[in-house]
Amino acid sequence: MLVPWFGCGNSLRKLQRYDEAIASYERALELQPEFHWAWCHKARCHALKNDRDLAIESLTQAIKSISISVLTSLRYRSVQQLLIPVQIRAFYDFSCTPIDCPECSN
Questions:
Q1: Distance CA 12, CA 22 (A)
Q2: Are 83 and 63 in contact (CB under 8 A)?
Q3: Residue 54 above 60 pLDDT?
Q4: How far apart are CA 52 and CA 47, in angstroms?
Q5: Which of 4, 61, 10 has its CA nearest to residue 34?
Q6: In the predicted model, what is the mean pLDDT of residues 35-42?
Q7: Residue 71: what pLDDT?
Q8: What angle do CA 36, 21, 97 make, to 5 degrees?
Q9: Average pLDDT for the chain
């Protein structure tokens, strides 16, 4: 079951237990490798740990996993805006308006 692992990862991330959160997201991705939100949050954890290369690797996977229909149905202005949480955008100094992932309250 995908949802418990993803939810556990989100809870661990909010507790700043990033290594454990990453492990939970990886379990979710074992069950559904194309689940872009898990890739996105995994990237967020890597960025919060200052693991730039791993954050970029996870974001690349998120971008590969997302479909155009998701972008258009959510009416996001760019892939960056959809996939890159506030902390990662600040870390890489992107010039788009900050917006958090619609699936978490942070």
A1: 9
A2: yes
A3: yes
A4: 6
A5: 61
A6: 91
A7: 58
A8: 50
A9: 75
